Recover the amino acids of this structure.
């Protein structure tokens, strides 16, 4: 039996991972420097590192030694472990196949408004919860523009046509149209022009709400 050759170069994989680490460290160094309103020149003077070296570090183009990282940590008054935070942070992705979204009723949902939750991301570094929904309207759907909740909402029209109210304005939405708005104002489909209608609704709001 012939064994197929290993198709991935482990050295290449290690180099790629190291590059990701360099970029993560660089972003953290830049973020802490800017947060404290420290210029590259001032940081160079404090640490003894050249401006060019600092630029390479912040852009992820070099692997700084532990001695260099300790020097940067002292200059920025942060623990050295802070530079690895972006690299170690868990990244989450949710894959929802067609037809597998969780059907549910959101607070204030009207009759025959079908909501399919496509995923949920929370407890992330940004402090924002994001919920994407696929909303389907048919001939029996109610049209009361009384939805109101915290956060920001984005609507992307996929099928059909509706007139969507936000506050005292009404927007005609057709396939390909986008509406981005503050969800604290009363909003919702006011006139179902062409059915069935489907649109993607992405709602984001702070974790502490």
């Amino acid at each position: 039996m012939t064994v197929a050759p290993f198709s991935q170069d482990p050295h290449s994989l290690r180099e790629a991972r190291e590059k990701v680490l360099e970029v993560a460290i660089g972003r953290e160094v830049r973020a802490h420097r800017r947060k404290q309103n420290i210029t590259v020149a001032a940081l160079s003077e404090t640490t003894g590192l050249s401006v060019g070296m600092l630029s390479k570090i912040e852009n992820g183009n070099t692997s700084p030694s532990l001695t260099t990282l300790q020097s940067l940590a002292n200059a920025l008054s942060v623990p050295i472990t802070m530079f690895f935070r972006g690299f170690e942070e868990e990244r989450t992705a949710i894959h929802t196949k067609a037809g597998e979204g969780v059907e549910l009723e959101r607070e204030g949902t009207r009759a025959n408004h079908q909501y399919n939750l496509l995923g949920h991301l929370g407890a992330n570094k940004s402090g924002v919860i994001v919920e994407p929904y696929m909303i389907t309207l048919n001939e029996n759907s109610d049209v009361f523009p009384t939805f109101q909740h915290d956060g920001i909402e984005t609507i992307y029209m996929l099928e059909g046509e509706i007139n969507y109210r936000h506050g005292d304005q009404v927007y005609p939405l057709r396939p390909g149209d986008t509406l981005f708005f503050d969800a604290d104002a009363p909003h919702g489909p006011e006139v179902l022009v062409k059915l069935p209608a489907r649109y993607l609704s992405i709602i984001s709001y702070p974790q502490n709400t």
Summary: The mean pLDDT is 77. The longest helix spans residues 10-35. Helices lie at 10-35, 40-47, 51-58, 66-76, 85-88.
